[in-house]
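Notes from the 1:1 (GR / supervisor)

We went over the backlog. Supervisor wanted to see one worked example end to end before approving the batch request, so GR pasted a single chain during the call. The sequence is below; no edits were made to it. Supervisor asked that the structure be written out right there so they could see what the output format looks like.
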Amino acid sequence: PKRREGWGMKGNPEERAIILAQYVLEHNATVRSAAKKFGVSKSTVHKDIVKIADAFRSKNNSFLSGGALV
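Structure output shown during the call:
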C-alpha cells in the first residue's frame, strides 16, 4: 500500500489541527482534499479546523466585536 504524506498525523492533536488549518488556508483546500492529503478522516479535518476557529474567535472576541484589545 502507498504511504500517504500525513501517515504520522495521529500523534499530537494540537499540532495536527494547526497543520491542517494552515494547509487548508494556504491551498484553498476542501475538507475532502485535506483529509486525503494527510491520511485522516474528513471528520477529523473538520473537527480540527473548528477547534482552531473557535480558539481564534475566543482569543480575538473583543477585536471581532469591535472592542479594544487590552
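Supervisor's comment: The CA atoms of residues 21 and 53 lie 9 Å apart.
Batch request approved.
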